[in-house]
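Throughout this chapter, every protein is written as a compact record of paired, labelled lines. An example of such a record is reproduced below:
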Amino acid sequence: MAEPRTVLTTGANSGIGLATVLEFARRGHRSVGTVRSRAKARAVHEAARDAGVEVETVLLDVTDATGCQRVVEQVGPDVLVNNAGFSTTGAVEDVGDREARLAMETMVIAPMRLARLSLPHMRERGWGRIVNLSSIFGLTSTPLTGWYQGAKHAVEGLSDALRIEVASSGIGVVLIEPGGFKTGIWDDAESEIARHAGSRYESAYRRTMQGIRLTEPMMGNPRTVARVIAGAAEARWPKARYLVGYDAQAVRLYDRVVPTAVRDRLTRIALGL
């Protein structure tokens, strides 16, 4: 970018969101992060002080449509980074309507609402970037996290449509597809699995958690993803997708090479399904 921009990042209190608000601030942009509480806002400002940069925070629950409109009008973003989300661990059979709706509201409807609200500001300037955080799970699926993957698959499809719709206005739409990085989402998965005690899938949940613990030490730093996000936002001609992480590359290759029936069988053996 030839000039500093205003960047709005949702879910900025930890993990990739926090790394992203700090990265944009380091690059000289006005970096604004949304958080859900004043305590989380303080944590963001403390991290910014430690990093030697300045960031702004605004209180927002992304499922609040009125709040989304207020924040977008207040900030007027040139760049929107839709990062807010949470782990939804549970077999399809174990996840009720309320939890499923919350997942879709938070990780599908809210990002598209924020994009829709931001578009007039971007069109007025003749330039804009909408960066949507997907996942390797937006490209593949595994058992016991179906609703999370369903949300990410939906974001992929909507982003593809939006990218073509707004290109003539000078607005780029980008998907970021990280693999495993050290964020609080893995702690959330453990607490969610505990809620499913007594499920017929209990053994599979236990094996899933063991796999997470084994791979967690090898997970990357969220700042790696933040650098990709910022680079995509600053690029004159950003790519439609950025797959981030060696594990994400490996999973993508595995999906392309190994037949579906074989993948299914291997997964069932690994999880005891």
Remarks:
- Residues 6-86+94-179+221-243 form a domain with the Rossmann fold fold (CATH 3.40.50.720).
